[in-house]
Here is the input.
Amino acid sequence: MKKMKKTNPNLVRLIETMRTKGYKDSVALWIALAKKLSKPSRAQCEVNISKLNRYTQEGEIIVVPGKVLGSGELDHKLTVAAYNFSQSAREKIGKIGETWSLEELMEKNPKGSNIRIFGG
Here is the structure.
């Protein structure tokens, strides 16, 4: 059976950037995220806002190596970085907290400190 490769050029570039930055700067977070994003799409996580609300605390920085979905409500301030957001999730999180792409997360926190991987 032939091994399938990622075909989305943006995702491939992101994975390579994370892997390179992780090994060059010795940041385990970027290496772990690159591995999680390299998995087949059926194995990538999807997290609802209700789950984020239940298992996170005020002011945390959360990274989701997959997609954030808009089911539920958020009642505390969070910064959520993810590979993808549904439109409703971006709006609901944006009312109280912030949404970042994974590229923005790498720029704003290059050492990956005080970040928690959620899901997957």
The first strand starts at residue 45 and ends at 48. The CA atoms of residues 58 and 76 lie 5 Å apart. The chain has one domain: 9-117.
